[in-house]
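Async update (no meeting this week)

Hi team, since we skipped the sync, here's where things stand on the single-chain job. The sequence we agreed to prioritize is pasted below, unchanged from the tracker. I ran it this morning and attached the output directly underneath so nobody has to dig for it. Comments welcome in thread, and please keep replies under the output.
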Amino acid sequence: MKEYEKNPNVEILANTDEVQAVGYKNKSVIGANFWQDKAASVSGISSDKKASIIVKQSGDVVEIGVSDPTMKNLGTIEVDIDKEFGEGYRCRF
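Output:
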């Protein structure tokens, strides 16, 4: 555990009133919590509402999970993933 403390493989990407996010240093997995009902971004992930979002990339496969942790949003959550997914490919959701 002490060795991991010296060289963790995760990093804090944001820690504000609007967004808290962490990710593996190789960016294969990023998890973000958006705390405000307004547009905010971190590491290529944007949301316009309160949301918990996880993006996992393994080779050519990208998995995206989105939830409303408040369970109060009766409308939509607009999420934008602006990330390079390999040479010659770019995907925006």
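Quick observations from my side:
The first helix runs from residue 2 to 6.
The beta strands are 10-15, 19-24, 29-34, 40-42, 45-47, 51-58, 61-67, 79-81, 83-84, 90-91.
Reply here if anything looks off.
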